[in-house]
Every structure is written in structure tokens, then in C-alpha cells.
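Example for tutorial group B:
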């Protein structure tokens, strides 16, 4: 592993000896495993899982490029915020000062994967399998654009990782002088059908409206494309020149619905810091559902909704139903001939939340 980093760990001599012995034993196990792999009875002749000491090492071992770990550590120490670190490292990869690539597409691919690996702490499959490939496409006016192909495993990155991967691609395409994506009407209408259809076959935390899909597709500077992940196919707008499949593209649907729509407030903060133009369309999502009672001091009205419990897995305990009446925090005394056991079925937190240790038994109607 990274010997220089291991020497920097603050520890007593006894703990250093303990870590040294651990590493010695780990290396011995790896040597035995590699020797066994070389016999040729496994698909690979070496152990596929590399050793890594920290986030930076994991990112380098997972997606590369070689030698990026010290730069990630330095940027993390200087900046702190992991999302901003991912943006800086991605820009560093494509600046042609440290790394050179055979093509712009390979530089884009490496930068986006490394940035996403930093966001996911180098422990998820999303940077490897969630991004199928990164291409350069061509608009009808002759300009080029970045074509990001997502696949199903991008789900593991979460909404922030999904949205940030698009932002990373936009930041580095500006540095490389690549143009913005201009969607055709057919591509826009295709996603208007595709995302609701995907919602029927797979889980989506949020289903954007037709107008919201239209807004994103017409303004997003990066093409959010993807591989076919489901057996179902779209009925309309088939065989589009710049869409390689008629099957549902789960990765693209996830990035638009759970990434850009749900995580717009978070990534818009970085956009304002970087003073990036062309992302103003996200203000619609940032201001959606804004609390307009803050200025007046009025108590907001919270509408009833059972959406959060609509897809609960059978057998899971339910600790709270929205707006269910509760008591002052003490279990109700059982009436003669009746047991108080089993009364915790519908309850809520006294402070209005559902945090651990704040759940109180509810009154049950006679």
C-alpha cells in the first residue's frame, strides 16, 4: 500500500507495530491468493481487489489515473468539500499538464469517472458500471457536445452523485472548448414518454412532470443518454439517430428524475460559486415548494400525504403515520381486562419528527 501515507499516521509505537503486523499478514494472504490464482482455475490470474489505505488510494485503485491519490489528498486538505474536490481533480486531469490522453473522449471519460469515484468514496460500482461510456456527439448545426451514457448501476451513486457527474462533465467540456448539447424535438418527446414508463417498471423517488422534462432537455448543456436497461420499449419516437436503443434507458431516467430534479438545490450552490452560465433553468427546481411563510412568520400548513409509506416493504415495522395523534410521551394505562401491549402501531414524534429516541406511543381509539 501507500508507504508514505502510512508513515504519516499519528500513532504510538505499539499501535504502529500493530499496524505493521496487520499489513504483513495481509500481504502474506495476498501472496497465497495470487499463487493460487496463477494455477489458472479462476477467470482471473490475480486477485482483483487492490489494497487501499484511504479514499484517495481507493479512487486511484478503482478508476485511476495513476498518481492521482496524492493530488486528491492535497485538494481535500485545502478545500474540504468533497464535491468541490471532485470538480477540481476532474479539471486537473484534462488540463494537459499532468496527464495526456490519446483522444478528448478518453480524457473526458477519465475525468468524469474519477470525479464520480471521489463523490462515492471509491467504494461503489457507479464509477465503473454506472457510466457506460463518454462520447463526443455532433449537433445539427455542426458543433460538438458531450454525450454521457449512463446505465442502471448509476442508481448506487445516489441523486447527488448522478447530478454532479453531469456538472463535472459540463465544467470540463468548457475547459476543453466543447460545445453545448442541443436536443432535437424527437429526443425531448422520447424522454417524456420514457421516464413515466420507467416509473411503472422500476422505482423512482420522483416523477417529473412533462414540463419539467421539457425544461431540462432544452437547457441541459450535457446530453444525458444511456444504454437500454429494461425489456420494455418506447412506443413513439423510435429509431432516433442519436439514441442507440428503443428500450428504456434506466440510467438516463434516474439521472434526470432523481439527480437533476431532486438535487437541484445542492448542485445549484456550486454552480453559483463557479459562476457557470447556462444552468439558470435549475432555479425552477430550487424554488419549487419554497416556504413562503418565512417572511410573514405564519405557521405553514402541511398537507396530508401517504406517499412516503406507499411502497413500504411488507413485514417492516411502521413507527409513524403522518399527523397521527399522540400523547405526552407516556404509554396509556391499560383499562381493566385489556393489555397495553401492542398500542405502538400508529405514533409520531412529539417534536414533529421521527428521529431515534423521539418516538412516542399513540392513543388508540376505544
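The residue assignment follows.
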Amino acid at each position: 500500500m501507500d508507504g508514505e501515507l502510512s508513515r504519516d499516521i499519528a500513532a504510538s509505537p505499539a499501535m504502529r507495530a500493530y499496524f505493521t503486523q496487520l499489513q504483513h499478514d495481509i500481504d502474506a494472504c495476498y501472496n497465497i491468493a495470487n499463487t493460487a490464482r496463477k494455477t489458472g482455475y479462476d477467470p482471473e490470474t490475480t486477485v482483483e481487489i487492490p489494497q487501499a489505505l484511504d479514499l484517495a488510494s481507493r479512487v486511484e485503485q478503482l478508476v485511476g489515473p495513476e498518481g492521482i491519490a496524492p493530488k486528491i489528498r492535497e485538494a481535500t486538505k485545502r478545500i474540504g468539500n468533497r464535491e468541490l474536490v471532485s470538480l477540481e481533480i476532474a479539471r486537473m486531469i484534462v488540463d494537459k499538464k499532468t496527464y495526456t490522453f490519446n483522444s478528448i473522449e478518453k480524457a473526458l471519460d477519465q475525468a468524469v469517472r474519477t470525479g464520480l469515484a471521489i463523490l462515492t468514496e471509491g467504494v461503489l460500482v457507479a464509477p465503473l458500471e454506472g457510466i457506460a461510456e463518454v462520447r463526443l456527439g455532433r449537433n445539427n448545426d455542426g458543433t460538438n457536445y458531450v454525450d454521457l451514457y449512463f446505465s442502471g448501476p448509476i442508481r448506487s451513486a445516489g441523486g447527488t452523485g448522478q447530478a454532479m457527474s453531469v456538472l463535472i462533465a459540463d465544467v470540463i467540456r468548457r475547459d476543453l472548448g466543447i460545445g453545448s448539447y442541443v436536443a432535437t424535438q424527437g429526443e425531448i418527446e422520447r424522454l417524456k414518454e420514457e421516464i413515466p414508463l420507467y416509473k411503472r417498471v422500476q422505482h423512482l423517488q420522483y416523477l417529473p412532470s412533462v414540463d419539467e422534462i421539457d425544461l431540462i432537455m432544452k437547457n441541459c448543456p450535457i446530453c444525458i443518454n444511456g444504454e437500454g436497461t429494461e425489456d420494455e420499449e418506447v412506443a413513439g419516437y423510435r429509431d432516433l439517430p442519436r439514441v442507440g436503443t428503443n428500450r428504456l434507458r434506466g440510467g438516463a431516467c434516474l439521472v434526470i428524475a432523481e439527480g437533476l430534479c431532486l438535487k437541484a438545490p445542492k448542485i445549484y450552490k456550486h454552480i453559483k460559486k463557479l459562476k457557470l452560465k447556462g444552468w439558470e433553468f435549475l432555479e425552477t427546481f430550487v424554488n419549487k415548494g419554497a416556504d413562503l411563510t418565512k417572511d410573514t412568520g405564519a405557521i405553514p400548513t402541511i398537507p396530508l400525504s401517504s406517499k412516503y409509506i406507499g411502497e413500504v416493504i411488507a413485514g417492516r415495522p411502521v413507527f409513524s403515520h403522518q399527523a397521527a395523534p399522540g400523547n405526552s410521551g407516556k404509554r396509556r394505562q391499560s383499562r381493566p381486562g385489556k393489555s397495553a401491549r401492542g398500542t405502538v402501531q400508529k405514533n409520531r414524534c412529539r417534536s414533529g419528527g421521527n428521529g431515534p429516541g423521539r418516538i412516542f406511543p399513540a392513543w388508540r381509539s376505544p
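Residues 13-37 form the longest helix (25 residues). Compare this with the pattern of hydrophobic and polar residues in the output above.
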